[in-house]
Amino acid sequence: MAGVRGEKLLTASDLAALCEVDLKTIHNWVDRGRIAHFRTPGRHLRFRAADVAEFLRAWGYSVPRELARASAKSGLVVGSKDTLAHVTRALGDMMPLRDVKHPYDALVLAGSDPPDVFIVDAKAAAADVDVAHWMEALERACRDARFVVLSDEATGLPPFATRVGRTDAQGLRTLLVPEPVAPAVAAPGQVAAAANANEPAAAAQEELPPRAAGGSSR
């Protein structure tokens, strides 16, 4: 796995500080495939912000706001200025947003600089294109992208699209901005066992959140 120029990368020390464990524990998790990583030409460990945020959420840690912003996926809003304002209010600064007013412009960007998420005002797009066929073309060009349609009608949308009400700001935020997960609290016996293993562990399971790992001060 290679890093992408311009993206935020974290070191093993950064991750150790976030998880309140020592470097040996981080290397142990890496060796066991607990977290996605890559190495620099000098063999130093590096972690993408998005992978670290996913790791923290999966294992019961809260995700610092700065890290959540750095790891946020990019969004393209297709619709009017009012649509953009609505999406911006719903998502705040948790997702970098671009916007286009005409659906054909989204097709151009899909080929040259595709976003991670398309957020489409179905009513606005329908004035210029057949929304279902247009979105199918976008999906063929951006197989890894997510499609969210702002619409009060549940019919006429492709199966890969997720519908949210046109004015449902909370629904849109819930869908696209994961809330921080409260840290899991480990029993003292689990902490002791994990301290000996120096990896995510618990008495009855092979893998449990690293929150229970040794070296934690909580």
UniProtKB/TrEMBL annotation:
Residues 9-58 form the Helix-turn-helix domain. Signal peptide: none annotated. InterPro entries: DNA-bd_dom_put_sf, HTH_17, SinI_DNA-bd. Residues 193-218 are annotated as: Disordered. One of its GO terms (molecular function) is DNA binding. Pfam families: HTH_17. This is Helix-turn-helix domain-containing protein.
